[in-house]
Amino acid sequence: MNVWSSVAIKAAYLELLPAFVRSSKVKVDTQWVGMADIRKRILAGEVTDVVIGSAGLIQDLINGGNFDSRTRVDLAKSEVGAAVRAGARKPDIGSVEALKNALRAAKSIVYSSGPSGVYLAELFQRFGIAEELKSKAKQAPPGVLVGEMVARGDFDLCFQQVSELRQVRGIDYVGRLPREVQLSTVFSGAVHSRSAQSKPGSELLHHLASRESQRILRKHGLEPA
Question: What are the φ and ψ backbone dihedral angles of 82, each rounded to 5 degrees?
């Protein structure tokens, strides 16, 4: 069975998958794909058995007739956080004004190409500092963990789903965006309408969303959907 998934749930998924494989005896091949690329590949006619991505993406794929709405399962929720290189000074982002000041003071900023990155770009506009940040704030390529770019020293400050930041070594987690400007993204899964693995695909999604899986989701910075 082939699964294409957002990297946002990677750590929890990899911890939860072995139990499913043992009980189902189904071999699972997982690709970590950015959501823009998932959309592009599905629209180009590629077929995979299961896709896991933002709820918005999954619903769009269902609306397009490629995925079966009856198989959709909401798996987890994630919020947006920030990080710096390990050992670097952590900026204050505890309030909206502090976040604005941290953005202005940062020498370089990187944010994801997924839902959190789209939201950050909109937030810069709302703050009225988009033009000011234009020369130093960059969007990472699809599917990239921005924390790795900060760990290498390519950027000073990064923003991405908390669950994605927690997967990276060499960075220090700063915290979540202030509640007033926080974005909570639901990650969902569905089975392709042309999949020959519909039953195990649905069983995998229900396993990931099960009550027994909630502790693992929380361990990796996610909340049950």
Answer: -130, 155
Q: Are residues 20 and 54 in the same domain?
A: yes
Q: Which amino acid is at 121?
A: A
Helix, strand, coil percentages (3-state) for the chain, rounded to 5, are 45, 25, 30
**Cα–Cα dist 69/24, whole Å:** 23
* Same-domain pairing of 96 and 142: yes
Place of tokens 């770019």: 149
Q: Which tokens go with 120?
A: 């950050």
Give residue for tokens 């991505």.
53
Instruction: Tell me which residue range forms the domain holding 32.
Output: 2-77+186-224
- pLDDT tens track of the chain, all 225 residues? 999 999 999 999 999 999 999 999 999 999 999 888 999 999 999 999 999 999 999 999 999 999 999 999 999 999 999 999 999 999 999 999 999 999 999 999 999 988 889 999 999 999 999 999 999 999 998 878 999 999 999 999 999 999 999 999 999 999 999 999 999 999 999 999 999 999 999 999 999 999 999 999 999 999 998
Number of structural domains (the chain) is: 2
CATH of the domain at 82: 3.40.190.10
Burial status of residue 220 (CB atoms within 10 A of its CB: 0-12, 13-18, 19 or more): buried
Q: Which residue has the tokens 């290498």?
A: 152
Residues 177 and 83 in one domain: yes
